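re: ur question from yesterday

yeah so i grabbed the chain u mentioned. its 261 aa long if i counted rite. heres the sequnce exactly as i have it in my notes:
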Amino acid sequence: MRILITNDDGINAPGLKVLEAIAAEIAGPDGEVWTVAPAFEQSGVAHKISYTHPMMIAELGPRRFAAEGSPADCVLAGLYDVMPDAKPDLVLSGVNRGNNAGENTLYSGTIGGAMEAALQGLPAIALSQYLGPENFAEDLQFKAAAAHGAKTVRALLDDGIWDGEDYRLFYNVNFPPIAAEKVQGIRVGAQGYRKDSFFGVEPHLSPSGRKFLWIKGGPQNLPTAPGTDVHDCLDGYISVTPMRADLTAHDTIATLKERLE
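ran it thru and got these structure tokens back, copy pasting raw so excuse formatting
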């Protein structure tokens, strides 16, 4: 199996090393793992593509490249420059430092990389590691993802739904913020919504008196509704959410037709 991996935390991120190990186990001894990741951190860029300016790409080692672009850019670089003669069988994005569950999903560059792969017609999985009091220490952060990542990916490859729709399915996986041995299993659920947690801005003055704004996130430990990703992770489970890039609110179409047409 040929696997392309990327992330949004950057080419030197520890989560990417975890993903490299996961991908190597899935690819097997006769497979190939290709890495195309951002040269610098690209957290929060969502599905951005850099179509208004070029990006530099550099080969850092065998099958290992850094691109000055977003995760979606990196997937495009992988498919059409790094691996043009034989597309990958699977694209993996992550392992993100921090959860990409609930409303975080909409901002996530990790999700953006997987989404671009799906739009290119390829099987894709985004993987993120939830952080909390039990695993926030640097040496503990990715233990759950490292221990359970390969078998979660393999379970999706063996038993997941892989359709050929125009907006084809891809998967969002979040590992819970607990020790690896405490993980309860896998739960499939919808994208949740933290009702009292929002992004905002925090102003600061520079020494010269100029105002700068830092984007500030809300609490990450607020549970979402049962059966959704944040709730499942905080309950000790690996959350798996099937996703599509189609943003249509299909549940409103019939009513709007009656009212407007």
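noticed a couple things. Residues 221 and 259 are 40 Å apart (CA to CA). also The longest helix spans residues 143-159.
anyway ttyl
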